Structures are given as C-alpha cells and as structure tokens.
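Forum: Protein Structure Q&A
Topic: Joint prediction for protein chains with partners

I've read a bunch of threads here and the consensus seems to be that you should model interacting components together rather than docking separate models afterwards. I'd like to see that in practice. Below is the full input, 223 residues plus whatever partners are listed. Could one of the regulars post the assembled result?
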Amino acid sequence: SQQGEEDPQALSIQEGENATMNCSYKTSINNLQWYRQNSGRGLVHLILIRSNEREKHSGRLRVTLDTSKKSSSLLITASRAADTASYFCATGSSGDMRFGAGTRLTVKP
Amino acid sequence: EAGVAQSPRYKIIEKRQSVAFWCNPISGHATLYWYQQILGQGPKLLIQFQNNGVVDDSQLPKDRFSAERLKGVDSTLKIQPAKLEDSAVYLCASSLTGTEEKLFFGSGTQLSVL
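Posted by a regular:
Agreed with the consensus. Here's the joint model:
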C-alpha cells in the first residue's frame, strides 16, 4: 500500500512563481524524501529530511517536516519551465521506501 | 559512475504471455528494489532485495510475478502469465546500504499487455 499522499494532485503556475506541494503519511517514519520524475523517465532524488529535522534547504528547494501532524511540504522557489515534472514524497520506516501518488507540476513560461 | 541499467526499454506482449525485465544496479549497491508504476500513479514497491536475500515482497503478486537476484548484483523480474492490468512501467532502483538513504532509479521498462 502507498504510504505518503501528495496534495494537490496537479498544480499549474507561471515561471518565477513559487510552488508548494504537501505530503501526508500515516505511520512513524525514519526519514522522508522527495523525488522528481520527468515524463517517461525514472525518478530523481531531490532531498531527504530525517525525522528529527524540521526544515532543510537545497538550492531553490525548501522542505519542512512536522512529525506531529505526519506531514511535509516541498517549496520550489522562483520556478522555471524546466521544473515541470511530477513530484513524489517517499517515506521509509524499516528500509523500504514507499511513494505517494504525486503532484503534477506545470510551470508555464 | 554508471547509473542503474534496465532493459528492455519497451515491451509489448499479448495477455497470458510471459515477460522478463532485467536490472543492473549501481556497482556496490547492496539494496535493489523493483517498483510498478501504473500511469498516473506513484511507484508501488513490489520487492526489495538486500544483497541476494529478499527483505520485503509483501506486495508482489506471487501467483504470477517472480524475481531473483542470485549473485547479489543484477536482478530479473518475471511475469507469467501477464494480464491486462500488468500494463505499467517497471522501475528498478538501488541504494548503497538500504538504510533509507536515497534511491537511484533506472529509466524503467514500459510494458504494454494487449
């Protein structure tokens, strides 16, 4: 069964705007990861945040984690057309990594 | 550094036929995963290997799916017989130790069952 669930399912913004995606999960986790998938390709790892961390940054990416609410958010600042892709959160609790259904982000030039 | 290699890239078969997918993980990666991704959905974990042992195959439909990683390196996923609902992209991923660090994915095999 899937672990994380992303929200919204789809998001369309203009280039230069910020994009925020959310992930909720059900069970205790050791870490939460975000991945990007371009159409017809495999997934690419973006960022990992551990259960004892609250916020993490990587370039234009900012991830937050609230373990009390079992939720995480991914913020992409100053979006570009090349950011158009599907974004998935993945959670691990015992070595396995399970993915949500993803958010489809479209960035219009 | 070479990435995760998968073949074939595309496969079209008739229902009730058999099919096999191959994956070669990044050199030195102990953990190998097979995921099934149906169009519009997230990847679903089918099986996880640690070296040549199975860690998790709870979501593998064992009546028709099988997987092996005999020498702890490359792996084969087989479907026999295939059903229409098996149409999906089959993704292979690997990680260094399997202790929930990041996964490296191959480009996947797109299977169409007619």
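Chain A is about 0% helix and 55% strand.
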